[in-house]
Amino acid sequence: MFGKKNKAEKGETRPTKSQKTTNMKKLEDLYYAAEEARKHAYAPYSDFRVGAALLVRPNEDSVIPVNKIYTGVNIENGSYGATLCAERVAFAKAISDGVLEYDLGQNPFVAIAVSAGDEEALPCGICRQFMSEFAPEITIVTKADGQFRIRNLTQLLPESFQLNKEEQESVAAVESAGNAPMQEEVPPAEESDPAVETAE
């Protein structure tokens, strides 16, 4: 029979109250890690210090530690366009550490917490688009008026820009060609001029 299966047949179970409490505790701890990282922010121009903490959850076979946290801070620059946001720094650290190269069996980026002290700091537009490249449904943790706020990236960026399949394949082909070993061009052999005789 091909009717819809109920949740029991699918093997699906709703999280228990204790599981919800445990998950919330992890997200709160993630926020406190962002708050601690914030102390290292470099913000001499705005004095607006931001810390981020990115939770990476690999599967059991992964070589990276379970529930590893990568932190980041905002790093300002006298040339404002060169400024880095805390969220992108945390992602860059994880990616440069090889997270995307491991066979994780799932999207490794679970949640990111952002702290700006007493003010709530939601990721800016560039960070939202940046994160959507790697984790379009990542959980985002902030705090406002003493209350933790949990959102999904799809709530903050409902229709992110994504390359279509043809464009992705085209980009992959260009990158593949760029990684191909360079072949040296061999100049053609010089032909002798029949009008010139070699003296013997």
Q: Structural class, from secondary structure content?
A: alpha+beta
Secondary structure: number of strands = 5
Instruction: Determine the mean pLDDT.
Output: 81
How many domains make up the 3D coordinates?
Answer: 1
Task: Give the CATH H-level superfamily.
Answer: Cytidine Deaminase, domain 2
Instruction: State the CATH class.
Output: Alpha Beta
What is the CATH architecture term? 3-Layer(aba) Sandwich
Measured as a percent range, the helix fraction is 25-40%
- Overall, the morphology is globular
- Strand proportion: 15-25%
Element order, helices and strands? HHEEHEHEEHH
Descriptive tags:
32% helix; disordered N terminus; 6 helices; alpha+beta; disordered C terminus; Cytidine Deaminase, domain 2; 16% strand; 200 residues; five-stranded mixed β-sheet
Please, could you describe this protein's structure?
The chain is of the alpha+beta class. It has one domain (19-172): Cytidine Deaminase, domain 2 (3-Layer(aba) Sandwich). 32% of the residues lie in helices and 16% in strands. The protein is built from 6 helices and 5 strands. It has helices at 7-10, 17-37, 86-96, 125-134, 153-156, 165-178; strands spanning 51-56, 68-73, 109-115, 139-144, 147-152. Strands 2-1-3-4-5 form a 5-stranded mixed sheet. It is globular. The model is unreliable at 1-12 and 194-200 (pLDDT under 50).
